Queue: 4 jobs
Job 1
Amino acid sequence: MDESDRSGKRLRTALAKWLAEPDESPVELPLSKVRTRTRRDFLLWSAGALFAREGSGGSFPTRP
């Protein structure tokens, strides 16, 4: 095996380890905090959808 083959294999291995997802670890949260975050995320998503709908209104032709 050539030296360049070894360094290329090491580089690919290091890159694969760097890009790998971290292991999942459970996080304990109080139920009230989970409900608050879920509600907030839903409201922000809904507001974003409404703004996107209104913003795209000018780009579509209107019916005669």
Note: The mean pLDDT is 83.
Job 2
Amino acid sequence: MFKLAEIDNQVRTASGRDGHGSACTSARLDRLTGLASTAAICIATLLPGALDAHAGGYETRRYSMEGTYFGVLGQYSHANAQFVWDTATIFDKDTGNWGVSGLAGHGWKSGSFYFGGEIFVDYANIKNVLAQTVNPVSQLTLERKVGAGANLLAGVTAFDDRLLTYGLVGVGATNFSGSITVSNASLKGDVWYPVLSLGAGADWAMTPSLSVRLQGKHTFYYDVSDRIFPDQTSQSYDFDTTSVSVGLIWRPWN
């Protein structure tokens, strides 16, 4: 009898402990459930505001090709230069050199269509030197250095305004200077030639205010009646130029 009572007591003690352990486990589960509910409520409350803030931040970084801009371009210019004195072709050869140009402009948009205008100044020291005497000329040096003008641009934008592709038409003037020796007489000249340019290019926005530009342009030099050198002899200088430019465009107010 004593042993049966002792066993029964041990069983009741174990059951009591198990009941206590189950109660503890249940309480822990209740606390975890409560924490999860609280976290879910916090997320549901704070997430929309965070998304709005993020969206607002994104809006401030939207890309746009509109507005005022400034640029610096490095360029390579190539020409098939030809100079004729009276009826003698003094030289007819390919020539080229590196240069640099600076520009300022403003652009407008209507939907994805882009329109703009810009002014520019460029420098490219393209020099032609006579290699040998071509009767009656014994010495000739011609240089094309400074040019200036204005371009009109028209194109389209894509990729949320990060890409602009355009065509251009421009007018301006380019300075030529040089010296020539004809029949032992030396002459010097310095004239400005009117020019017409046609080209195309693309701007890619790396940041909302900074873009990289790639541009190709062909410049036609108008055959003016003014002679390069002060002489009564007929002269012509064909120096149509093709240039490729790469540089940076800065839109400070974007």
Note: The CA atoms of residues 137 and 185 lie 9 Å apart.
Job 3
Amino acid sequence: MRLLKLLLIMFVYAAAPAAAGPLEDGVAAHLKGDSAKALHLIRPLAEQGSTDAQVVLGQMYYQGQGVAQDYAMAMSWYRKAAEQGDSDAQYMVGRMYRSGQGVAQDYAMAMSWYRKAAEQGDSDAQYMLGRMYQSGEGVAQDYAAAAVWNRKAAEQGHAEAQHLLGLMYSHGYGVPEDFSAAASWYRRAAEQGDPDGQFMLGCAYQSGTGVLQDDVQAHKWLALAASRFAAIDNKKLGEALKNRDALAAKMTPGQIAEAQKLAREWKRKSER
């Protein structure tokens, strides 16, 4: 999600009038494949302290866009922007410390940089803080803190955080066990197209946990989850199909047809 956001920033700069400045011209050149011109325009700005230029240059090295991929160089430029308070850069420095890209893996440093971005309201960083508190990466495991940070991200519309907060309510991790609240958060994630949220909402309808039991709704959400898992996770795809098919075995043809219709309608609506 974050890399797509940074690419969008590049497109915004590229769409600006050419006369707006060298950064816009540099990004436009980069997106047109003129790497030499892009670096000629962007690197001096980055060296002069422009955080936007530093983030763009870091992104180019991180992705290998117009330059040889070099995580160490990406980290160097991200860090320069991060130390000036840029939340996008702070998130990326945290991400690279967590994964050990360009630096030695260091969960404590990842937590530190994620926190800086999270405290500025960055939802991706808030979500990652929640995950790390939940798993005890770089910090003592703390479900209550995990719930706090996941909620901050979830309330900003972060689908993965919404799904994770739903799980926390389902199991009583850091929050009181509340199946209705869990289903509500699963629904928010599901409506955004998050396959894990769709799967869990389908399971909730299948068992009547936190919602009224409804085979049609269960089939709809399980089928939608399966269609999204197909491209990313074969194990989860198998689980979604197994649940959907077990459900279908006890449904009437009319109920199955209705569920399939609802799934098609949801897809059409989400693609608008």
Note: The mean pLDDT is 92.
Job 4
Amino acid sequence: MELTLPRIYSSETLKNASICALGADNLRYLKTVLRLKQGDRIIIFDGFGHEFEARIGGFSASGVNVSLEKQVPRTEKKISMTLAQAIPKAGKMDLIVKTAAELGTDVIIPFTAVRSVSRIDGEKASAKVARWQKIVREAARCSRSPLLAAIEPVLSFEDMLLKAAPDARKMIFWEEEEQQNIRDALQDQRFDGVKQYFVIVGPEGGLSRDEVDRAKASGFTSVSLGKQILKVETAAAAILSIIQYEKGIFGQTAGEGGK
């Protein structure tokens, strides 16, 4: 696969498909911005792991017709990651979602913590989730991921805890934790072979002791990043990067599968 080919997201599944119709949103980008023409080659992916080298068949007023050619082999991931992120102030969640998606996070769960300053509910929450889904699509396009991170609706702390699978490595990051850091948690031999990681990151003011206790009662381990205090958007990126380095995509060579 040529890395220089433009990479385009298709909202239609490409499974068992030979042609694809890209909507009007891609028409301007391909024809006016990239100045592509009929016969030019691109990469198409659907966010479900299906990715193809393709050729533009033609332009119309409503979109772009594309013929699918060679399927791009899919590299299996070693692990899956879920980030449960307490809603931070202002637009910081946009950056967290973008970075998490680029780092190969599979599921992003926004939730409301006791110390969350921003409160999102109702129509506002739906609009935010739609915006984050758009950010995820763009992040997948740029990072060449064949999969889209799923964005869950904004949940309460209690409902978020219920999303963790019983066999996942469940970690809640707390700046007051003094017994276990992330290195110790990831090197704990009791969890060798774990394929799912579920991590909770708090808002700017951190998580309350009561929230941490409730998470522990649900099977989570309290973990710290050490003595250095990071901004919420930096903390999420650091945690996900460390997990991927130790267990995931940064620990495998190009073309290596998840075996």
Note: The chain has two domains: 7-71, 80-251.
